Amino acid sequence: MRLLKHRLRFLSALLLGLSAAVAAGPLAAGHAFAQNQQQAQPAQQTQQQPSGQAPQSPQLANGLLDAAVADLSKAKKDFASIEAEAKEDGADDSALVALSGRVDELSRSVAAISTRLKPRSTEIDARLTQLGPPPKDGQPPEAAIVTQERDRLAAERSQISAVSVDADNLVAAANRVAMQLIEVRRKLFAETLFKRTGISAGTFEDAGAALGNEGIEFRDAVTSWIGFVVKAKLGSLLTALLLSLGAALIFLSGGYRLFRRYYVRDENIENPPYISRLSVAFWSTLIRTLSLVAFLVTSFFFLSNFNVLRPDIAPILAALFGFIGLVYFVGRLTNAVFAPFRPHWRLVKLSNKGARSLTWCMQAMAVVNGLDYVFDRVSESMGSPVVVTVAKSFFAALLIGLILIAASFGSPILAKNGDPDAPGRHWPHGMAIILRVLGILLIFTAFIGYVGLARFIATQLIVTSAVLVTMYLGFQLGKSVSRQGVFAETAIGRFLENRFELGDVALDQAGLGAGLATYAVALLTGIPLILLSWGFHIQDLELLAYRLFTEIRIGNMSISLVGIFAGVLLFAGGYLVTRWFQRWLDSNVMARGQVDLGVRNSVKTGIGYLGVAVAAIISISAAGIDLSSLALVASALSVGIGFGLQNIVSNFVSGLILLVERPFKVGDWIVSGTSEGIVKRISVRATEIETFRKQSIIVPNSELINGSVGNWTHRNRLARSEIPISVSFDSDPRKVMDILLELVRAIPKVLRNPEPHVEFLRIGPSALDFEMRFYLSDLSDGMEIRNNLRIDILKRFREEGIAIPYPHQELHIVRDGRRGRQTDLLASTNLVDSADGPEVGSETVVPDIAPPAEEELPQETKSIGRRRGRASAQ
């Protein structure tokens, strides 16, 4: 009952906080409007004020400061009450938990007071900066209205500063009280845990006598409660039971129908893979236990809210529901891991007999421990003496210790031949010793009087061990699912593959996400259960989760996981909206308006960057990150960023210039340095150019801005094309020009304005050189037209008998008779164009003088002469 009240109080506080957040908008708007009205009428106030009368004390519009002062006074009274209750002795742990919740709520409300006043203080500082300091001695006096406004703002800022200082002091005091409460709770837990009680025969005699009276009182209490419910609360009881049955249908039956494929064993599989056994073990334990716990919690909630339970019956029923949940959880876990009747689904190497014995041992310890807590709540509700609780816990610790010792002498390990029906082997030596030490420690601790410690150890051995084993199964399952290619073989993977036609890469990524989700589920369910078993209350977990999700302080900056999640969602939404608007604008507005492709690309790119920037700013603000707090860091890093990232910044700015100035656009044919091709994409860092050989060249934008860039299609696609032609000397130049003009004018794609023409360039050394020039509306047609023109020119020239020469060489051999040896001299090398092909070079022979006798020449000269003679003959 107390826990449910705390939860309802937490929900009420959350709803009040949301209401305050909704109401803060109109209040802030009214405050700004009143301030504007106050600043718009300073002259009227000055005229209405009698001469010689001091100005009245300024009042804040809509009473913001007055409301803050009133809230702070109320918070101080609440703090005094909390501090007085914290100093009282005899408070139990539940009361201290409730008191800690009140302290935390008070601290947050006081901190909100300073937060509400901070924007107004910022406005005052900005206004005082605009007004400037008062004039010094000897300077001209300022206007009276300026002096009055400065004094008014200074007085208001002093009041706000005083309230903020009081609020900060109160928050600090509340934090000190919170730390004191934590210390008191720690001491109380230690005292309860290490409290020693004398164990003797008299203790058990007193406990037996008190236990008889407790049984009679418990019977009378249950009987009177049943009679009360039947006579006065029968309708409420039936309604609560009906709603509980509805909850059972939703959680138990609905959970089975929705998730049965994930945790029901398929008996047709003789040798299931390890991942299937892990999946069935983890999900069967988790889903079924959570379904039962949800049903029990909702049933208790309905019974409590319909006032069916009495204060003395409610804790007993809550303990009974907890006992049912604990026993069911341990039973599901042992049945999933040990699988006593299904050896092919077993996760550990145990024999059939060993699996059954360990299952019974674990369930017996859970039953004993759960009954101990149920009997403890019965004794507490009936007001029984402490000796009864001590005796019950003593026997519970004794039984659990004996079970551990008995389990250590078993032989549960699978036989070496792998047959589960064969007798098993003994525990490993170390494991058997650990079990015996734990059992003896429990019994010894209980006998020396530390019953509370023995009870705590027994609880952790059962609850914490079971939770840790479940978490381990979840981690192993997540690790297995995350492996490459494994998720595609699971039932969910096959369903996704058939339903959405996913490929191997997509399924592998889905498997990675499924593994991370399994890790998260194991942590989010295991950690709270462990903390609860170690003495934490639900309110502690609620407070911890609230602080974790709403307030994480890094220095002076406060962020929250909820804010970060909201920021991520806002950024994703802004990004999707930006992409949708880009597509809509491009396909519905600019495409219908026949806007140039380059303009469309520039507009789309600019809108994309603007939308992403706006979405990033909104998401950062929603995440609770103050951009002004990052200004100092940005200014400190600006110098280093300027030097280290100057090339990146230069390319970024150059990209913006290219998008705005548009010296070229997507689809243009440009020439930059050694790069020539079609522009495919312009980004803020680089431009992609595709050459005519289909090679993509990434050019930094700064090079395109700083260097010379030729653009064939800057304003239009009009271009001039040229074809050089050479003919032999005996050709008629006028006839050649007429033929060329006739051929080029016959092509439809050649423009008539400007008119094509033929230039007689020069009389070359071996030919007459002409050049045909014509204009095309689209330069992309130039290659095809030039190719066809060359074919037509060659064909027409052959028909007209016009020769196209090509170069040849003439070799002149000169004989030097005065030295008596042959010398080959290259007199001239000319490029001769002839329509008939290369002419035979004429040999110019110089009258030679008879050479001296061959034997008079040196040997080297003889060989040279023979080689040159052969060359001459050839």
Automatic annotation (TrEMBL):
<dbReference type="InterPro" id="IPR049278">
    <property type="entry name" value="MS_channel_C"/>
</dbReference>
<feature type="transmembrane region" description="Helical">
    <location>
        <begin position="557"/>
        <end position="577"/>
    </location>
</feature>
<dbReference type="InterPro" id="IPR052702">
    <property type="entry name" value="MscS-like_channel"/>
</dbReference>
<dbReference type="InterPro" id="IPR010920">
    <property type="entry name" value="LSM_dom_sf"/>
</dbReference>
<feature type="region of interest" description="Disordered">
    <location>
        <begin position="35"/>
        <end position="59"/>
    </location>
</feature>
<feature type="transmembrane region" description="Helical">
    <location>
        <begin position="237"/>
        <end position="259"/>
    </location>
</feature>
<keyword id="KW-1133">Transmembrane helix</keyword>
<feature type="transmembrane region" description="Helical">
    <location>
        <begin position="427"/>
        <end position="450"/>
    </location>
</feature>
<dbReference type="InterPro" id="IPR011014">
    <property type="entry name" value="MscS_channel_TM-2"/>
</dbReference>
<feature type="domain" description="Mechanosensitive ion channel MscS C-terminal">
    <location>
        <begin position="722"/>
        <end position="804"/>
    </location>
</feature>
<feature type="transmembrane region" description="Helical">
    <location>
        <begin position="280"/>
        <end position="304"/>
    </location>
</feature>
<comment type="similarity">
    <text>Belongs to the MscS (TC 1.A.23) family.</text>
</comment>
<feature type="transmembrane region" description="Helical">
    <location>
        <begin position="456"/>
        <end position="475"/>
    </location>
</feature>
<dbReference type="InterPro" id="IPR011066">
    <property type="entry name" value="MscS_channel_C_sf"/>
</dbReference>
<feature type="domain" description="Mechanosensitive ion channel MscS">
    <location>
        <begin position="647"/>
        <end position="714"/>
    </location>
</feature>
<dbReference type="Pfam" id="PF21082">
    <property type="entry name" value="MS_channel_3rd"/>
</dbReference>
<keyword id="KW-1003">Cell membrane</keyword>
<feature type="region of interest" description="Disordered">
    <location>
        <begin position="833"/>
        <end position="874"/>
    </location>
</feature>
<feature type="transmembrane region" description="Helical">
    <location>
        <begin position="316"/>
        <end position="338"/>
    </location>
</feature>
<dbReference type="Pfam" id="PF00924">
    <property type="entry name" value="MS_channel_2nd"/>
</dbReference>
<feature type="transmembrane region" description="Helical">
    <location>
        <begin position="395"/>
        <end position="415"/>
    </location>
</feature>
<feature type="signal peptide">
    <location>
        <begin position="1"/>
        <end position="23"/>
    </location>
</feature>
<keyword id="KW-0732">Signal</keyword>
<dbReference type="InterPro" id="IPR006685">
    <property type="entry name" value="MscS_channel_2nd"/>
</dbReference>
<dbReference type="InterPro" id="IPR023408">
    <property type="entry name" value="MscS_beta-dom_sf"/>
</dbReference>
<feature type="transmembrane region" description="Helical">
    <location>
        <begin position="631"/>
        <end position="660"/>
    </location>
</feature>
<protein>
    <submittedName>
        <fullName>Mechanosensitive ion channel family protein</fullName>
    </submittedName>
</protein>
<keyword id="KW-0812">Transmembrane</keyword>
<feature type="transmembrane region" description="Helical">
    <location>
        <begin position="516"/>
        <end position="537"/>
    </location>
</feature>
<feature type="transmembrane region" description="Helical">
    <location>
        <begin position="607"/>
        <end position="625"/>
    </location>
</feature>
<keyword id="KW-0472">Membrane</keyword>
<feature type="compositionally biased region" description="Basic residues">
    <location>
        <begin position="864"/>
        <end position="874"/>
    </location>
</feature>
